[in-house]
Amino acid sequence: MSHYHLYAIGNALVDTEYEVSDELLSTMGVSKRHMTLIDTPQRAELLTHVQGLHARRTGGGSAGNTVVALAQLGGKAFYSCRVADDELGAYYTQDLQNNGVATNLTHTRPTEGQTGSCMVLVTPDAERSMCTFLGATSQLDASALHPHDIAKSKIYYMEGYLAASPTGLEAAVKGRQIAIEHQVQTALTLSDVSMINFCRQGLEAMIGNGLDYLFANEEEAQTWCGTTDLDAIIGQLSALAKTVCLTRGPKGCIVVQGQQRIEVPAVPTQAVDTNGAGDMFAGAFLYGITHGQSPAQAAALANRAAAAVVSQHGNRLTAAQLQGIAEEAAKTAKA
């Protein structure tokens, strides 16, 4: 019997979200829609621009959002990550526990320094631009892995952002090897165009000789494949994983399994904040897949969950919201 439906490794980041104008984003020198790594002086300088603006704080990190979504839906999840011995670290650890996610953080003493954080800047067109201060998570390494828990999981999930960290990448790849040794399925999200442009070798190391699941949005897929031709993209990505989930925002998603291509329409919504959409999609999809749903059913659930999270500010939904979405998706599937 599998102990966990999903075991994930990724960056522990506390998100602080601000609503900003395009003019302010430009003044701050932030690259729109993408993730930019920042250091302590850059972070201090950026914070001067948002003083006085309303801030929302939540647990974050791409894979962190994914495991929380899966757990809120009723799945069992484990998250390997790293925080510092500070207020944000305590907040992040408690947030995982509150959402029913098991973690190495309850077994290890946090390190000195600062817990990673992410400034999420949301413009009126609902696009999110992220400035990430890695802090303690830049030292994430294989000591965060629980090999016996990986071995007892259904799926092992890697966050593409770890391609930027030598020790994080090494840990992700080691976890992947453990998963494969124990016939545990493997999954990766490409995470961001910046990872593809600057850390492609790291992503290729996580892909290895192939995955069971690969998640990418349209822009990431186009950047990875060097083309906007959809057939060419699907051909290239399907060589990397048995199941590819290509998310396309308001155009829905395409699930590719070998020669089979399933197009699942989006749920119409008014987007106000795209932060966490891809993470939510992955969490809901993997919940569906590990609970007996077909790829089409899992993708329909994931589209509903992603539509709900982009229709509000913030990267997370509540467990009650997600369970309500799952009930609606189940009714629709039966109809």
Write the layout of secondary structure elements.
Blueprint: E1 4-9, E2 14-19, H1 22-28, E3 35-37, H2 40-49, E4 56-59, H3 62-72, E5 77-80, H4 87-98, E6 101-103, E7 117-122, E8 128-133, H5 147-151, E9 153-159, H6 166-181, E10 185-189, H7 193-198, H8 200-207, E11 211-217, H9 218-225, H10 230-238, E12 241-247, E13 253-257, E14 260-264, H11 277-290, H12 295-310, H13 319-334
Parallel strand pairs: 1-5, 1-9, 2-7, 3-8, 5-6, 9-10, 10-11, 11-12
Antiparallel strand pairs: 2-4, 7-8, 12-13, 13-14
Helix pairs in contact: 3-11, 11-12, 12-13
Count of separate DSSP helical elements? 13
Distance between the termini: 32 Å
Mean pLDDT: 96
Helix content: 40-55%
Which structural class fits the helix and strand makeup?
Answer: alpha/beta
Shape: globular
Radius of gyration over C-alpha positions, nearest whole angstrom? 18 Å
Number of beta strands: 14
The ordered H/E elements are EEHEHEHEHEEEHEHEHHEHHEEEHHH
**How much of the polypeptide forms β-strand, as a percent range?**
15-25%
Strand order of the largest sheet: 6-5-1-9-10-11-12-13-14
Low-confidence stretches: none
| Biggest sheet architecture | 9 strands, mixed
